[in-house]
Amino acid sequence: MVFRLEDKLLKLAQVFSLVANKSLTLKAAAQVSNYSYWHLTRLSKRYKQEGLKNLFRRNRMRRSSKLKESDIALLKNYYLKLARPQISLFLYFFYLDYPNFPKLSGAWMRKLLIKQGGYSVGNRKKTYRKRFEAPAPGLLVQGDSSPEQFISGDEHYYQLLAFLDDCRRVCLAAKLVEKDTIDEHFELLKGIVKRYGKFVALYYDNDEKYSYIRHGNLRFFEYKKEKADLQVVRALSEIGISVINTKPFDPCGKGKIERFIGTAKVQLPVWFRRYQVKTLAQANRVLQWYIKYYNTQQRQREIGMTPDAKFRALKSESKFTTVAETVNLDKIFAYREERKVERSNALRFEGIEYQLQRNPLVYSYCGKTAEIRYGRDIPVTIFIDGELVKYKKLLTMTKQRVNSEKVGVRKVAIL
Predict the structure, then answer these.
(1) The pTM is what?
(2) Which ranges of 82-162 would DSSP assign to H, the alpha helix?
(3) What is the pLDDT of residues 52-72, one digit of tens each?
């Protein structure tokens, strides 16, 4: 017996009217209408929002009812070639290479691959608790790093360093590095400030670059033993950005960046196999393409749109502010260390001895504390009492001299 669509709609209209009058419960209505309880709940919600006419939506995707055996074999082989990626990522790359292939939905593709034995059905995802969300872009930026073997054939573990906006989930910057060093953090944070502007706060874990580390549950910090180097915190505070540390051993506190890195660990190897990445430089080039795809094309289930679309919607409320032109970000995002000036009006730093040139107003800087600034692309500059001091390299301290000074033997290698 075949029922027309009009008969189904009339029957459901009667059921929904009884439910609205509280003459019938949804559970009893599901038994009467031969629908499952959850499906009838969805239809009831759609009936209240859109009415009876749009209750049964038609699939706008044009798909072929029958595929050739060669087309099915092409789909399966391409799926296995990319090492069983996510269905959304598989469709994205497949239609890049085969744009004239009949359009298929993700659900239909998943059923086809399950039938062919190429797709394995996983467990249902857990529902995690949700942390608060910043109400506007630029209020809070999350950062984190994680190691992984991203490049196939390369056993080296590379660190994925990334920064994400808490409100709109846009990946502001990311990079694959061999070691998670202060130089890499300087480079990415400086790039974010130059491109987007100054944000309000950075949300990071208790990494030694962002927080003091206390071993053995000590209450007080011992500088000589632990040698804390909070250069990143110092640089951010100079331009007015505060740093918030997460609760120790609580990764749920910064779940958005953890989720992004977890997604990247699954999807990036597929991209690298697709573009035959072999080196770290090629990987970082493809990573920038992936960030553009993630921001503009990958729809986020929680916000119901892409991160870039939400950024455009909240652009007027953005808290990113431009930095004044007089502020030199290259000098701010640089290392700073202190050294005492010796009696000979010189100081030593990283195996090199610097002879300070005398000022007409100051005969000697002996006993004063000098601030040394340097960076990856920044030469060594010396400041005393806030004024730049010129210097001249006189001596190079070799390993033999550094070791001999401990026992009182003085050996000098002259440049």
Answers:
(1) 0.69
(2) 87-97, 106-116
(3) 766 765 544 444 456 888 888
